[in-house]
Design a protein that fits this description.
Number of domains: 2
Order of helices and strands: HEEHHHHHEHHHEHEEHE
Radius of gyration: 33 Å
Shape: elongated
Number of helices: 11
Number of strands: 7
Largest sheet: 4 strands, antiparallel
Structural class: alpha+beta
Oligomer: single chain
CATH architecture of the largest domain: Orthogonal Bundle
CATH class of the largest domain: Mainly Alpha
Length: 300
């Protein structure tokens, strides 16, 4: 404070010196009355929950989404897990902000206002005006928030297409049958039975690896690597097995009795597996980019 008054005094003396010859100097010993002009009122800054590469995610946005979640709970209010819920909400908003930033870097991603307006108009036209307004109120959404949410969804969809368009439509695949047994002794018993003429279908009802294969004789069908049909270690081993070899593979969840009945290179992927590989490719890309982002959490 003393330094501030000193600087003000120096400034006033300099002004007086510059004015010499133009105005009459004050008499010796006269007090100089500084003129203080009030500063314009500062614009209040909304509280920030987190900065994402220096882009703010405002506390109000977090609270709004928490309120939307609360409307969806059976009791209409947050439970004791509110802290976890808030963390998940903020994490989602971080991802949404990063999506927008990454999309801005990619010239192939553009969401014109006309597209957003068309989608909003279609949503509004799908129900009576009163019902549409009630739906917004139930979800604690303003028209502006709905527009922003819709734009974020359209942007994410375009970014997904841009990043994953190069994922191949063919892949090396195997066709396999699989059983999952709880103990090594059980697996050895089933392996011996199959070797002696029993079939995988004989054990499918009790031991099939997946619910889907349980209905088709423990047959997993054709699948590529990396789509989580089998645990990673079991899958990696399966892709090295010779065709028609019967083997037992230990894993964290039990013992897999497995037979690869066929293998093929560059086999066409089903739409389901192709989409799954695209999702995995996008998630890997996004996680790599997210790991390098500058994320600064603000205290509440």
């Amino acid at each position: 404070m003393k330094r501030l008054f000193t600087l003000i005094s120096i400034a006033l003396i300099a002004m007086a010196v510059a004015a010499c010859g133009k105005t009459q100097s004050p008499p010796p010993g006269a007090a100089i009355r500084p003129i203080f002009r009030p500063l314009p009122p500062a614009t209040p800054t909304p509280p920030v929950a987190v900065f994402v590469n220096e882009t703010p995610v405002f506390r109000q946005t977090v609270d709004s989404q928490l309120a939307q979640f609360a409307r969806l709970t059976p009791t209409g209010s947050l439970t004791a897990s509110a802290t976890i819920t808030e963390s998940a909400v903020v994490s989602g908003l971080i991802d949404q902000t990063l999506m927008a930033q990454f999309a801005a870097e990619n010239p192939a991603v553009t969401v014109p206002d006309a597209v957003v307006n068309e989608k909003l108009s279609a949503m509004a036209a799908s129900m009576p005006t009163e019902q549409y307004s009630a739906w917004l109120a139930r979800n604690n959404l303003s028209s502006a928030e709905l527009r922003a949410t819709l734009r974020a969804q359209l942007t994410a969809a375009q970014l997904f297409e841009a990043i994953t368009q190069s994922v191949p439509t063919t892949a090396n695949q195997i066709h396999a049958q699989c059983l999952l047994l709880p103990t090594q002794a059980d697996a050895d018993r089933v392996e011996t039975a199959i070797t002696q003429g029993a079939t995988f279908a004989d054990f499918a009802a009790q031991y099939a690896c997946t619910d889907a294969s349980r209905r088709v004789g423990a047959d997993l069908g054709w699948f590529p690597a990396g789509v989580n049909v089998l645990p990673a270690a079991v899958e990696a081993a399966a892709f090295t097995l010779p065709v028609d070899a019967l083997t037992v593979l230990p894993a964290a969840d039990g013992f897999y009795v497995l037979r690869v009945s066929a293998a093929a290179e560059a086999r066409a992927l089903t739409p389901e597996f192709h989409y799954r590989l695209r999702v995995i490719a996008f998630e890997n890309w996004f996680n790599r980019r997210r790991a390098t982002a500058k994320i600064e959490w603000m205290s509440n």
